[in-house]
Specification:
By secondary structure, the protein is mainly alpha-helical. The protein is built from 22 helices and no strands. Helices cover about 60% and strands about 0% of the residues.
């Protein structure tokens, strides 16, 4: 590509990306799917121009474009999601010294239980008022600060929460740069396969911009803390890695499923010990005759990481554990995504169709927990079969775990792809980027009230993603996959 054509592509890409994202942030109507998807198509076209054949010399400019869009979206009230109202509700509760997991929202509208800021108008905007909250401690802390600083303005509270996410996104940018620049070279791998411009896959992705900064979803915080964990692990900073992993769990619980992939990598074998055939064999070495040597942090980083992780999790969750209602309320919240909610699923919809054929009604209470157990078992099996012990391959393992979880989930919203998009930066896989475009088709569901899914579009979404993933896998098998 000539210098002139490269500059033209960059200019056109920036214009399309900025135009589409700003419309999605400030002017879109969730029930007007044609304008919504049209704007996203414009933004994604610009994104492809910028990342398909990235111009290294334009990287500083494109980073600033990403920063500028995020700063602008701080001041856009969420238009495509109503989760913000539950954030504000929980924030007022914690600010008043009340455990948000203790009671259902309607309880605080009864005489004698009123809380300042919890009004009938706010209650009417909650998307799940009949269920307990689901948001962990880090998110609850941000909600509380927002409610405390802006008790009388929903917009002001949203801006404060977005400022926190902006800091997290800037942190993710810093970590992405550090990880790509310092990425260790592996035998048979070309160092140029992982240039710094790869960070644009995440940094300029329209779904990330719109859903994290535009619609205020705390997956952005989870991404930052996960990337920070990955960075500290590669630098052998075991305690800081444990604290960062705990913060990721305290932002969203999903990182818990990634812990099995750390076991083999954190159990370092003393001299003379042959590698175990699987993780179980490696774990046995923790209790071998050389246990005293195993306790040395430089030899067995499993211990300092695990202790830091456990203590940090306890510190994050302790304020809520002190309430007798926490465990019951939190357990009830988790069951929502297994027994009640269904949205844009794949394997679950196939199981649901079989259930209708078999007994004539929706068996989500059966298939939801079953698929959750299947995902947990599959992720554990992936970790057990993973013989690699280097840190650079961890991203691919985590990406596989998240993908399996999403395939087995009963609910898959667009912002759930934030972690796979971030992780694919360090792998050969690009199907999360394809998925980040197709999943926006789910906004057709909001054309009616109550929402109704178009299962044909769901089928198109997953068939294309699966087909692209299979094509990538075949290319990897032949050794012709692009970096």
């Amino acid at each position: 590509m000539s210098s002139l054509s490269a500059k033209a592509a960059v200019s056109a890409g920036i214009f399309l990306l900025v135009t589409g994202v700003l419309y999605l942030g400030f002017g879109v109507d969730r029930m007007d799917f044609l304008s919504l998807f049209g704007a996203f198509l414009v933004a994604f076209s610009g994104y492809l121009l910028l990342v398909r054949r990235p111009v290294a010399a334009a990287l500083p400019l494109l980073i600033w474009v990403g920063i500028g869009l995020r700063v602008a979206l701080v001041f856009a009230f969420p238009l495509l999601s109503d989760d913000v109202y539950r954030f504000i509700w929980d924030g007022h509760l914690v600010a008043a010294g009340i455990n948000p997991f203790a009671e259902l929202p309607a309880y605080y509208l009864q005489a004698g239980h009123e809380v300042p800021g919890l009004t009938e108008q706010l209650f009417e905007r909650l998307n799940s008022p009949e269920y307990y909250t689901i948001y962990p401690p880090v998110a609850q802390a941000v909600f509380t600060v927002a409610a405390w600083l802006s008790p009388g303005s929903w917009y002001g509270a949203a801006v404060i929460m977005k400022l926190f996410l902006l800091v997290g996104e800037l942190g993710s940018l810093w970590v992405l740069q550090k990880l790509l620049v310092a990425r260790p070279q592996v035998q048979g791998e070309d160092k140029e396969q992982y240039p710094p411009v790869r960070l644009l896959y995440y940094w300029l992705n329209p779904l990330i911009l719109v859903e994290i900064m535009g619609n205020l979803h705390f997956e952005g915080a989870m991404v930052f803390f996960l990337l920070l964990t990955y960075y500290f692990l590669q630098r052998s900073s075991w305690v800081r890695a444990g604290v960062a992993m705990a913060a990721a769990v305290a932002s969203k619980l999903l990182p818990l499923m990634l812990l099995p992939f750390l076991v083999r990598r954190l159990i370092r074998r003393p001299a003379g010990h042959p590698p175990g055939r699987n993780i179980l064999a490696d774990v046995k070495q923790l209790f071998s005759r050389d246990y005293r040597a195993a306790l040395r942090p430089r030899t067995w980083p499993f211990w300092p990481f695990s202790l830091a992780f456990a203590c940090s999790c306890l510190a994050f969750f302790l304020p809520f554990f002190l309430s007798a209602d926490f465990l019951e309320g939190f357990r009830s919240s988790l069951e929502l995504y297994q027994r009640k909610f269904e949205f844009n699923a794949s394997l679950y919809y196939l199981a649901r169709a079989y259930g209708y054929f078999d007994v004539g009604w929706n068996q989500i209470a059966v298939f939801g927990p079953l698929l959750a157990r299947l995902a947990a078992g599959g992720i554990l099996l992936l970790a057990l079969l993973d013989r690699r012990s280097d840190w650079h391959s961890l991203a691919a393992g985590w990406l596989g775990a998240f993908t399996l979880y999403l395939l087995c989930a009963t609910t898959v919203h667009p912002w759930y792809l934030s972690v796979p998009i971030a992780l694919c930066v360090f792998t050969r896989w690009r199907f999360p980027l394809v998925w980040s475009f197709l999943i926006m088709l789910t906004y057709t569901n909001y054309l009616t009230v109550p929402y109704a899914e178009n299962l044909w579009l769901v089928a198109v979404e997953y068939l294309i993603v699966a087909g692209f993933g299979y094509w990538e896998w075949r290319r990897c098998r032949r050794g012709t996959a692009v970096a």
